[in-house]
């Protein structure tokens, strides 16, 4: 069998693929029993797919190799700890493209009173171990814990794992803390009467923000109307009940998530997610996490969308084939992380050589045992750190690839970049997923 077949292992040895060599196989030499015995002789014990082996033996001449002959199970790491809001008075209205939309009431404002429970900590979960085709257990990592910190006007009770309000005001949720900020309210449009707004807290505008105005805040910025070619900068989230009509000039920058009904010729930068209900049209959008446009019409057309993790939309591009650029940076970040981890390992290994040499010299000089023990402990800690860094490198290499999801149509003249790889879409695809496979951008129809 060795001269006729090879076995390729993938996904941390949880998948075994049978490859056929370019050698003629005499008739009748490959049977199910002989094939099974040969596979077991290679140490494969778990998840053998007998039905595939039978099919290979019966249709050897016409079978399309490679064949998945054994399937294990990838480990699933535990979910990280997180803060779960204990209330929700933020309600989305119907964003169906055929429904009548009230631009100025797309969102309500989350508020809290003194002493109210704002959030509860949900502990990290244990992972689920996997198993290779060799029967080897693949351990899973427990989810990462979350160190909850006291925010502005909030207190975290560790024994109850609850966040309490120490003042009344508007609530802003972040990754590891909850803040309650005072509110600067503008009833109506921003105008010459209000001027530019610079406030250490939340800003709530019930009307529009016309071109030329600037808003700067520490908390969340909420605009019930439309934002034109204005500049908004905040450490928190931005919620725009109407949409953005940037005219190619206005800029929105936020330290959290950005949410809006639509973006037209706008420039939006978010350290979290960019979530748009209807359309992103001829705009420049950058999110460190995800860009999502799947509610209602859910169309991204023209301009540039850049994401750290993934992009999803109902339709990308349009019938007139407007040039649209999508770029995902995740692979670049992973490569940088791997390089950083490898450099740290080299530094630790060099330091270990010095420590081991020092330990030998101290022992030869009959140095007191306490000093030697300190050196031994440092060596042990360094070795442990190297092992952990190696695990992180492996995790980066085996992490799931970022992707672009299209529920409807991916139109031609859409240029896709994932890391250093690039592909221009030449023909339409329906219900597709775009990702990296063997150093090439592929489009897989769902």
Automatic annotation (TrEMBL):
This is Uncharacterized protein (DUF342 family). Residues 331-399 form a coiled coil. Pfam families: FapA (PF03961), FapA_N (PF20250). Residues 25-176 form the Flagellar Assembly Protein A N-terminal region domain. It comes from Fictibacillus halophilus. The keyword Coiled coil applies. Keywords: Coiled coil. The keyword Flavoprotein does not apply.
